[in-house]
UniProtKB/TrEMBL annotation:
Protein's name according to its UniProt entry: Type II glyceraldehyde-3-phosphate dehydrogenase
Source taxonomy: Archaea, Nitrososphaerota, Nitrososphaeria, Nitrosopumilales, Nitrosopumilaceae
Enzyme Commission number(s) from the entry: 1.2.1.59
Keywords: Oxidoreductase
Length: 290
C-alpha cells in the first residue's frame, strides 16, 4: 500500500509510554538496549524472545492466569508465545484443582507451519521435528522450574491453529472426563467443544460469528477426545495461535501502564474482545449431540 511515512522510530518513542515489540525473534533484545532503555520507555516483548541468559529481555514471562500481579510495576516484560500461553490456560486450573495429586504432565505440541496471514511463507509438505523446544522451559518460568512437565513438539503443514495433546498422570485413579471439563466451565479464554472434527471447523465458524476479531482468542478443548484410563487423563485442545496472545498483551499493558487489578483489567479486556459471548456461541454450535 502507498503509505507516506515520515520521522524516525526514535522520534516516535519520544511521545511513547509503552511499546509492544513484535520484532522478529532476538531483535527485541537489541531494541531494548538500543532504543527503549536509553529512552526510558516501557516495553512488552513477544514469544520469540527469552527471559533466560545474556539476551533476556526481562526476568518475568507473563501469563495472566498464573502471575498477573507480578507484572505491576515492571518496565520490561515478556509475553509468552501462543503455545506457552495456551499451556498456561490449561495447566494452571488443573494444578489449582488437583495440586500434588498430579505427578506428571506430558505434552505434545502439534504446531501449525504458518499463520493464515503469512502468505509469503511457504507451507512445506513435511512433518518437522523440533529439537529441544523452548516451550517447556518457558512454561516452567511461571509454573516452577522443578515442575514435572515434559514437552515435545512437531510442526505440520497447516495454517489452521496449533493442537496440543496432553497426558496428565495422577497418584491414584484419574478423574473422569466430566470432572476435567467441569474445571474449565467458567474459565476465561477456554471453551469446551464436542463436535468439531478439526481445527479448521472452529476457525471457519469463528469467521461467521459477527465479531470485529475473527480469531476466537481462546483455547478449545475437544471434549470428545478426553479419555481417562487408570491413573492417566488424555486431552486434546487447539490453540488459536497469534489470536490467543492479543488479549494477554492487553491485560499486561493495563497492569504495566495503570497498575490495574486483575479484575479491572479482565473486565476491560472482556468489553473489547467479547470472549464470553464467543464462548457461548462456540459451545452452542459445537454442542454434544447425544
Amino acid at each position: 500500500k502507498d503509505y507516506k511515512i515520515s520521522g524516525t522510530i526514535e522520534s516516535a518513542l519520544d511521545d511513547c509510554d509503552l511499546v509492544i515489540d513484535a520484532a522478529p525473534g532476538g531483535q527485541g533484545y537489541t531494541n531494548k538496549k538500543n532504543l527503549y532503555e536509553p529512552k526510558n520507555v516501557m516495553a512488552i516483548y513477544q514469544g520469540g524472545e527469552t527471559t533466560i541468559g545474556d539476551k533476556a529481555v526481562s526476568d518475568l514471562l507473563f501469563n495472566s492466569r498464573a502471575n498477573y500481579d507480578l507484572s505491576t510495576g515492571k518496565r520490561h516484560v515478556m509475553q509468552g508465545s501462543c503455545n506457552v500461553t495456551g499451556m498456561g490456560r490449561i495447566l494452571e486450573p488443573l494444578r489449582t484443582k488437583f495440586g500434588d495429586n498430579i505427578t506428571r504432565f506430558d505434552v505434545t505440541l502439534v504446531r501449525r507451519w504458518a499463520d493464515i496471514e503469512q502468505t509469503d511463507k511457504q507451507v512445506k509438505d513435511t512433518i518437522e521435528m523440533t529439537e529441544k523446544p523452548h516451550h517447556g522451559d518457558d512454561v516452567k518460568t511461571y509454573f516452577g522450574k522443578d515442575s514435572p512437565l515434559f514437552v515435545r513438539a512437531i510442526k505440520v503443514p497447516s495454517r489452521q491453529m496449533h493442537l496440543h495433546i496432553m497426558d496428565i498422570r495422577f497418584k491414584d485413579q484419574a478423574p473422569k472426563p466430566s470432572e476435567i471439563h467441569e474445571i474449565f466451565k467458567n474459565e476465561f479464554g477456554v471453551v469446551t467443544l464436542w463436535t468439531a472434527k478439526g481445527t479448521k471447523d472452529v476457525r471457519d465458524f469463528a469467521s461467521t460469528m459477527g465479531f470485529n476479531f475473527t480469531d476466537t482468542n481462546m483455547i478449545h478443548i475437544h471434549a470428545n477426545m478426553t479419555v481417562s484410563i487408570g491413573d492417566t487423563v488424555q486431552m486434546m485442545y487447539s490453540d488459536d495461535q497469534t489470536g490467543i496472545v492479543i488479549p494477554e498483551n492487553h491485560m499486561l499493558m493495563q497492569s504495566m501502564l495503570f497498575g490495574k487489578s486483575y479484575q479491572e483489567a479482565f473486565s476491560h479486556t472482556e468489553s473489547i474482545f467479547k470472549m464470553d459471548e464467543k464462548k457461548k456461541k462456540l459451545e452452542e454450535h459445537f454442542a454434544k449431540t447425544d
